[in-house]
Amino acid sequence: MGKQKNLSLEMMERVIIDLKLDQDYRKIKGSLLRCPGNNMNGVKNLDIRMAPKKENVTTQANSQKRGNLQNVSKIIAVSSCKGGVGKSTIALNLTFSLQKLGFKVGIFDADVYGPSLPTLIGKEKQQLYAPEDKPKEILPIEFNGVKTMSYGYASGNQKAIIRGPMVSSIVVQLVQQTQWQDLDYLVVDMPPGTGDIQISLCQELNFNGAIIVTTPQRLSFIDVVKGIEMFDVLKVPTLSVVENMAEYVCPNCNHLHRPFGPGYINLLQKQFGIATALSIPLYGDISKYSDLGSPVVLTLPEDHTINYIYRKLANNVVNELNRTDLNKSPTVRYDTTKRVIIIKDFEGKEKSIKSLELRSKCNCALCVDEFTGKRLNQNQKFDQEVFPQKIEPKGNYAVAIVWSDGHRSSIYPYKRMWSEEINEHQS
Ligand code: ADP
């Protein structure tokens, strides 16, 4: 971008700008979006995207970059767009649930502005120590056999007043200087949001996968989409989405209530094909034991529903990360000669689908009622010549299509495209 001179935007209907993902990404994107209309003469659609992460980093470079993370097999990000949705609680209980499956695990609290790990394990007064032989390194704090680290240990649980780029470097330094030794999994409790700090962390820590935590409101659903998009661009597979506090069991009548309505877990499964999405109920003991510094999965009996759900989450994470095809998605392209959309899996199997067939079977919120499942586009007269203008992967399991008739919100899980629900085009 910086080297482009005399870029003429006149008469261009659509302009796509791929911006490098660095500390200035948001700032530059903001300035471009605020660009006065007369500088963008004739441009109807300005698409500013994060430039995909380059994949030319060698394994050796990777391991050098990882410092004390070299012997950590898999690093998992637990992320949310907003604070207060239960991300830290879920990160912690997932960590202990992975431990119960027999793995060596650690947890890193990457939230400098609101470190909660020390409180969640009752170690607010903890101090940090360096090993005698390596004064620049830090010993992790052990809790129930799990290695933990948080900025809260260093700051006495005070919120940091440092800003922006420094935060990312402090966090990266802290995680890389901690003596994790051999771990099967390191769970990273990310700071909330999808901004610069989160992007730098993704780039520096080379996550193997991410879990997105959300609550059952419409706005949170939109946030999940943002989160999936961020991890997509950074080539981090989204392993699962956890909807927290969507339902609760009334202690008086013992009925299951969903005070925020049906939530979005089904939609996430249907639209993005995230089969591993799951829901954790609002449960008083979760906050009670968290406040007491006693993680709920270590406190409640093994056969308790909450333990069962966390076990499922931990198993999902392990299974997804063990999938050899995790990073191999089918390709979806439009064949302009045959005028069909072709989906091809990594073993070469293909299916051709007519554009009109796929367009008319869109399941987005504009085409299908989110809650009743009733098709809203039943009587719509579709353009018989409709074709995809843009096709791009969304998460590991779905593809988004922008159609020539202006419909921009279509997302098709690969699984659905393969299914009999979408008719194959017979030539
Ligand atoms: P975040 O990390 O997203 O800011 P926390 O994990 O700190 O959120 O959780 C916020 C509050 O909600 C805490 O008091 C926590 O104990 C409580 N909480 C989280 N999940 C549940 C749940 N499923 N049921 C009841 N309370 C919960």
TrEMBL record:
GO terms for biological process: iron-sulfur cluster assembly. Residues 333-416 form the Gamma-butyrobetaine hydroxylase-like N-terminal domain. This is Gamma-butyrobetaine hydroxylase-like N-terminal domain-containing protein. One of its GO terms (molecular function) is ATP binding. It holds the Pfam family ParA. Keywords: ATP-binding, Iron, Iron-sulfur, Metal-binding, Nucleotide-binding. Signal peptide: none annotated. InterPro entries: GBBH-like_N, GBBH-like_N_sf, Mrp-like_CS, Mrp/NBP35_ATP-bd, NUBPL-like, P-loop_NTPase, YlxH/NBP35. Belongs to the Mrp/NBP35 ATP-binding proteins family.
